[in-house]
Amino acid sequence: MSRVRQTQKVFTLSSSRSVPNLAQENALPPTLGVKESDLELGRVDPTATLVRIPTVMSITGIGRATVYKLMSQPESGFPQPVKLTDSNARGAPVAWVLSEVLNWTRARIAARDKAAA
User: For the stretch 94-108, what's the b/e string if a residue is b when 16 or more beta carbons lie within 10 angstroms of its beta carbon?
Assistant: First the structure.
């Protein structure tokens, strides 16, 4: 009997610089899998880059259940996922548009700053 081995890809930024500040334009978390130099050179388009739930959780700092709760609340403005297959089954793969997640995060920061003023 052979075992099916599942592997998990772990991505890091290939830069000697420290982890970028997410408030910066186009800043990426270290788990994204995109080299910072590629982003700077325009090789990566955040409006066409899809990220999975672990990256969304890393960027936003919120848990999986909260992500799905916010998605069900239109007033939260949390971005809706993109279906990766035609399956309607529970657990079908989805991903989020990177720029939408980053914009939502920036909006939360702006709301905090506006409330503090």
Answer: bbbbbebbbebbeeb
In whole numbers, what is the pLDDT of the chain averaged over residues?
Answer: 78
94 has pLDDT over 70 = yes
Does any domain span residue 38?
Answer: no
Q: Give CA–CA dist 74/7, Å, rounded.
A: 35
**Res 28: pLDDT:** 57
Q: Distance between CA 62 and CA 117 in Å, rounded?
A: 25
What is the span of the domain harbouring residue 62? Answer: 46-116
Q: What is the CATH number of the domain that holds 95?
A: 1.10.1660
Does the residue 56 lie in any domain?
yes
Burial of 111 per CB tally in 10 Å (0-12, 13-18, 19+): exposed
Is 85 among the domain residues?
yes
| Whether pLDDT at 29 is above 80 | no
